[in-house]
């Protein structure tokens, strides 16, 4: 399995992602940005300092200057890269993966995800053609970035009453962000707020199951809502005042209705719920589907001039704040909406829920071959092939796409009427037949 994924470098540290690879990636980035000024940050993973050191050795050997912010959310690195006039940023993290993983992510000069495969960087890596020079590293204060960010967002918000919020930092890079909410007069209750790269509190991935303790705290303390972050804090999963997870699509619908207007565009991942079209199209919004992946969403949001970008995995983009996915801006704007008097649970319940089922079919051999056979089998249904095969009917959607990391074909079924189980059985059978 290659560590060079679609939009980052990632693998088990020491076996898949080695110091040599990290060093060479640093040399490739530095050679791609001759004499460049690069921002650098990381999450709390135990291997973070080791990967960071190797990467730094590489990028500094090309003559670039690097300003290192230590442990800081990637959304704050994106903000600082944009506002600070950097040429690019690198971030040491494996996002929501288990502690033994690590990786390197990239940001453009405007602070959003870099599609590095579309740059010269990988060509330089593969050819081993690197610049030589003597770069300089400067240490910067993460707290200063958070203060600058607080100054920036404060002028964009109008919060009408004090709010209580539960913040599940997940032992990751969000641990230093309580000061943001304090600055904006939130009554913040922090859980899993000690930085720890083993993520002992509830694991690295914020899910309905892992956020049960945070959800309980929301209810017991009478909080208005809660948010659970992943290690690099580019995702935030929302908990309503009744202790229930609010799907990212519902959050997007609430924000679109309350903050934006007819004619505005919303970019959504290919696997997002049909809630978006059913709720927003009648109001005059345009919903644009993009392939799954936060960096793909970020780039499409910029190209389309969209007001919101959303992924089912809880990446949410509000480009009026910055082009990077930013769960802190999301949580603050949601707070602004709630501060006007409505409960988040009522706003969420006003949006219908549709049964959404996900299955995985393990395959042997080429996923591409299986997908080609399925495309032929399903041709009469005219599937959209933007990212896998998506069939959209009047009252259901079916998405079939290969896993990026495992020998699996994923099946996603959502229905607004009829039986989801019958659709799952039908299409799961087709996948198994195509995989023989």
UniProtKB/TrEMBL annotation:
Residue ranges occupied by any Alpha-D-phosphohexomutase alpha/beta/alpha domain in the UniProt entry: 3-123, 149-243, 249-351
Cofactor: Mg(2+)
A Pfam family this chain is assigned to: PGM_PMM_III
Superkingdom: Archaea
InterPro entries referenced in this protein's UniProt entry, alphabetically: A-D-PHexomutase_a/b/a-I, A-D-PHexomutase_a/b/a-I/II/III, A-D-PHexomutase_a/b/a-II, A-D-PHexomutase_a/b/a-III, A-D-PHexomutase_C, A-D-PHexomutase_C_sf, Alpha-D-phosphohexomutase_SF
Domain Alpha-D-phosphohexomutase C-terminal: 380-417
Keywords on record: Isomerase, Magnesium, Metal-binding, Phosphoprotein
Recorded family membership: Belongs to the phosphohexose mutase family.
Protein known as: Phosphoglucomutase
Species lineage: Archaea, Methanobacteriati, Methanobacteriota, Stenosarchaea group, Methanomicrobia
